[in-house]
Amino acid sequence: MQSPWLVFLDQIGARFEEGVAGSLHFGSAADDVRAAASGTVIVPLTHTGLLQAEGEDAAVFLHNLLSNDIKKLPLHGAQYSSFNSAKGRMLASFTIWRDNQGYLLQLSADLLAAIHKKLGMFIMRSKLRLHDLTPNVALIGLSGAGAATALDAAGLALPPEVMTVSQGGVQVIRIDASRVVLAVPVAQAADIWKKLAASGAQPAGTAAWQWLDIQAGIPLISAATQDEFVAQMLNFELIGGVNFQKGCYPGQEIVARTQYLGKLKKRMYLAHIDGDSAPAAGSDLFSAEFGVQSCGKLLAVTPAPQGGFDALAVLQIAAFESGNVHLGSPEGLALSFGSLPYTIS
After folding, report:
1. Residue ranges of the GCVT N-terminal domain (predicted)?
2. Quick one: how far is CA 262 from the chain centroid?
């Protein structure tokens, strides 16, 4: 039986893209991105899913597996974190928040089943339960100057600070100055959506939220980019996704060594690519300095409001500094670079 939330989205004109887990659009991805760039939008975050860890050992369990300090996450607080391989490569990235029942972990939908199973292998005698809440909770993104007004129209409060959570039947997680994620019981999701839309927020598809993530420099690991990057390559420590004082976790030695002993060779940058065909996440990048050897990959790509495509590109720092980076081959389309909202050292 199909979820009433998905039935509602179909009724209001959302169309899912074939072969892309949870990705949908309202008309076209390019139109959705332009709406996000110019106004207030509401986005079904069906390209992400939600796990819940609850029980008396939940904090210790997650703390021992993830890159951030879960023990210090306050009630009604949020943070970024990651689950890594023994070689320090990111297997999943999360937005995590804490409520009265435990911890909620938002991650890419195409990784949810595998990560749920993988984390479950570590439970053993720990006193906790790990649930997939995706069928029961609708995740909705709200962005733009009218976000606070839209929340008020829906009877919801804007959390006072970034990375804090307004609790209640509907949870509101403030991601940045103008963006929130709503975790809504499926039975209430259509009603909340209608109230947000009635306030003037425009429905938009997955590409709109992904473009906002790209502009904010927030990486989301998906199946196409899993097990490719150490956290610092994705600027993850710059957005608060890594704690270097906590104890051991899978991959911790590599992450710490990269921070303190090694010279970081790759970073993530905001890039633009002109062209008519959308490059795929995971596409290789090339630079004259590295010849026919790939110097990096695209992490995420969406249409750009002005045409062409915006992307998060993970590449050799030397290639970025040369300003000579191309898509797909040394003779491919050239990348131009913009500035992220945080400083890359």
Report:
1. 25-231
2. 27
Spatial CB neighbours of 164, under 8 Å, sequence gap ≥ 6: 76, 77, 78, 173, 174
Distance (Å, whole) CA 205 – CA 221: 19
Do residues 195 and 309 share a domain?
Answer: no
Question: Structural domain tally of the chain?
Answer: 2
Report, in this order, helix, strand and coil percent for the chain, each rounded to 5. 25, 30, 40
pLDDT tens column, 103-147:
999 999 999 999 999 999 999 889 999 999 999 999 999 999 999
Q: Are residues 296 and 180 in the same domain?
A: no
What is the reported pLDDT for 2? 76
Q: What is the arithmetic mean of pLDDT over 248-270? A: 91
Q: Closest Cα to residue 62, out of 127, 5, 137, 119?
A: 119
How far is the C-alpha of 52 from the C-alpha of 48, rounded, in Å? 14
Q: Which domain holds residue 230?
A: 1-263
pLDDT of residue 234: 98
pLDDT the model gives residue 297: 97
Q: Are 7 and 138 contained in the same domain?
A: yes
pTM of the predicted protein model? 0.96
> 9-43, pLDDT tens digit by residue?
999 999 998 877 789 999 999 999 999 999 999 99
* CATH code for the domain in which residue 327 is found: 2.40.30.110
Tell me how far apart the alpha carbons of residues 79 and 73 are, in angstroms, rounded to a whole number. Answer: 8
